[in-house]
Amino acid sequence: MIEYLKLKLNQKIGMQEVIEKLFILNYEKGEGVTRQGEFTIRGNIIDIFPFNFRQPIRIEFGLDTIEAIRGFTLFEGELLHSFDELVILPIYEFYGKKQLSESIAEYDPLKAFLSIKKGDYVVHINYGIGIYLGILMLKI
User: Fold this and answer.
1) Which pTM does this prediction carry?
2) Are the C-beta atoms of residues 41 and 33 closer than 8 Å to each other?
3) How far is the C-alpha of 100 from the C-alpha of 92, rounded, in Å?
4) Residues sharing a CB contact under 8 Å with residue 138, sequence separation 6 or more, in sequence order
5) Backbone angles phi, psi at 16, to 5 degrees
6) To 10 degrees, the CA torsion angle through 105, 26, 45, 79?
7) Which residues fall within 8 angstroms of residue 106, CB to CB, at 6 or more apart?
8) CB–CB of 33/56 below 8 Å?
9) Does residue 49 fall inside a structural domain?
């Protein structure tokens, strides 16, 4: 099974546990986040640029609780959207850093959303309300 990291607002999880999981998912620690696959630590904050996001994400911790999850602009650092939940997918699946027991053809990125099933109503930020029909693989 493909691993991922699912974080929720007010989730009881230690910052060190999140950092260890990011290393397992092959994210690289750096001085800042300039590209997908990198993360940095500043005090009680982890900035990460998941490959499945268009913008970096800032995770703010209390003692052992996630207090805020927000997107921010890459260059200005301006805080954007707040998230209640965040799913971080591993980067090696698409960049060939590790061998997988599950092929990409079998990979369903929505498996991380365990509660969503075919026929459920979903809301897309750009396209509105729809019905989830599952994943369709196209042959080219």
Assistant:
1) 0.66
2) no
3) 9
4) none
5) -65, -35
6) -40
7) none
8) yes
9) yes
- Using DSSP's 3-state secondary structure scheme, residue 92 falls into helix
Q: Which helix (H) or strand (E) holds 63?
A: none
Amino acid 104: pLDDT: 42
Burial of 127 (0-12, 13-18, 19+ CB in 10 A): exposed
Q: Report whether 105 contacts 138 (CB < 8 A).
A: no
pLDDT in tens, the chain (140 residues): 568 899 999 999 999 999 999 999 999 999 989 888 999 999 999 999 998 888 899 999 998 999 999 999 888 878 888 999 999 988 864 554 444 334 444 445 555 555 677 888 777 767 788 887 876 666 76
**117 DSSP β-pair partners:** none
For residue 73, give Cα distances in angstroms to 31, 53, 77: 16, 12, 5
Task: Determine, yes or no, domain membership for 107.
Answer: yes
Judge whether 126 lies within some domain.
no
Looking up residue 93, the CATH number of its domain turns out to be 3.30.2060.10
User: Does a structural domain hold residue 130?
Assistant: no
Dig out the tokens for 23 from the structure.
């290393």
